[in-house]
Amino acid sequence: MSKLLFALLPLAFACQDPPAPAEPASAAPAPAAEIHAVHEDGTHGEMVAGHSFANAEQWAKLFDDPGRDAWQKPVELVAALELAPGMTVADIGAGTGYLEGHLAAAVGAEGRVIAIDSEPAMVEYMKARVQREGTPQVEVRQSEAGDSSLAEAEADLILMVNTYHHITERPAYFARLGAALRPGGQLVVVDYHPGDAPHGPPAVMRVDPSVVQAELEGAGWGLRKSLPLLPEQFVQVYSLGPVKVEPVIDAPAPVAPAVPVE
Fold first, then answer.
1. What pLDDT score was predicted for residue 39?
2. pLDDT for 23-61, tens place per residue?
3. DSSP SS3 for 165
4. Residues 6+ away with beta carbon under 8 Å from 12
5. Strands, E, within the chain: which ranges?
C-alpha cells in the first residue's frame, strides 16, 4: 500500500494516548507499546491490536477521564492560547472532544471550533456531544489521510494536542497546513516530553521538542515561544515564516564625572 496513504495517521489516540479499554476476561488487553506500534504503521482502521474503535463510548471513559485534568490542565492550556470571541480555532486530532467545550467558551457564540478527527466513530461521538452539551459553534469534521480538511485561510489558530507524534511525512503535511491559517494566525503543538512518563506513548514514539522545532522550521514555520505550562508535555507556539528576534543592544556603561584636581 502506498506510503502516501498514511501521511496523516488516524488520530483517535491523539487526545490522551491511554491504554486500551478493558476487554472481556478471555481477551487480555494489548500493551500500550503494541497498540502504538500498530498505530504507527498506519494499520489502525477499525481494529488496533484486537481493539475496536466502533465503541466510542467505551474509549470516552479513558479520553475524558476527569483525572486527566490534573496533568492536561485544559483550563490553563486554553487560557494560554489567548483566544478572543469571534475567532476560529481548529483542533486537529480532537478524539472524543475533550477540549471542545473549553475552546467553545473561549471563542464565544460568534466564534467557531472545528473539531477534526479521522476516526468515523469519534466523529459521530463528537457530533452527538455537540448536541448534548449545547455548543453549536463546534463543527465536527472527518479528515482523510494527509489532508487536514481545512480550507484556505479558515482558522485563526490551529491546535494539535498529543497528535504530532502520530503524523508521518510531517514536512510535507505542515508545509500544506500553513495555507489554512489567516494572516497572523498561529499553530500550537502540545505533545509529550521525551522519556518515560505515566501518560502518553512509549518513549520510542515521542518526538523531542527540538526535533519538532527543526521539522516545522523546515516546513516554513517559526517558533514564537515555548510555554512551561504542563508537567508532562511541551507547548510550542508557531507562526508562518522565520521569527525575527530583536537584537539586544547593551547600553554603554555610564561615565563617572571627572574629579577636579586641586
1. 36
2. 333 333 333 433 343 333 232 333 333 344 567 787 788
3. helix
4. 44, 53, 59, 95, 117, 118, 119, 121, 122
5. 47-48, 51-52, 88-92, 112-117, 138-142, 155-161, 181-192, 221-227, 233-240
CA geometry: angle at 31 spanning 26 and 32, to 5°? 135
The separation between CA 220 and the C-alpha centre of its own chain, rounded to angstroms, equals 18
Q: How many CB atoms lie within 10 A of CB 244?
A: 7
* C-alpha span between 147 and 145 (Å, rounded): 6
Count the residues in the chain.
262
Asked if residue 60 lies in contact with residue 96, where contact means CB atoms within 8 angstroms, the answer is yes
Q: How many CB atoms lie within 10 A of CB 191?
A: 25
pLDDT digits (tens, 9 = 90+) for 177-186: 999 999 999 9
Mean pLDDT of the chain: 79
Domain with residues 66-240, CATH architecture: 3-Layer(aba) Sandwich (3.40)
How does DSSP classify residue 40? H
Q: Which three cell numbers stand for residue 112?
A: 467557531
pLDDT, tens digit, 9 for 90 and up, residues 177-231: 999 999 999 999 999 999 888 888 888 889 999 999 999 999 999 999 999 999 9
Angle CA(235)–CA(237)–CA(240) in degrees, nearest 5?
150
Alpha carbon 100 to its chain centroid, in Å, reads 12
Distance from C-alpha of 122 to C-alpha of 100, rounded to nearest angstrom: 13
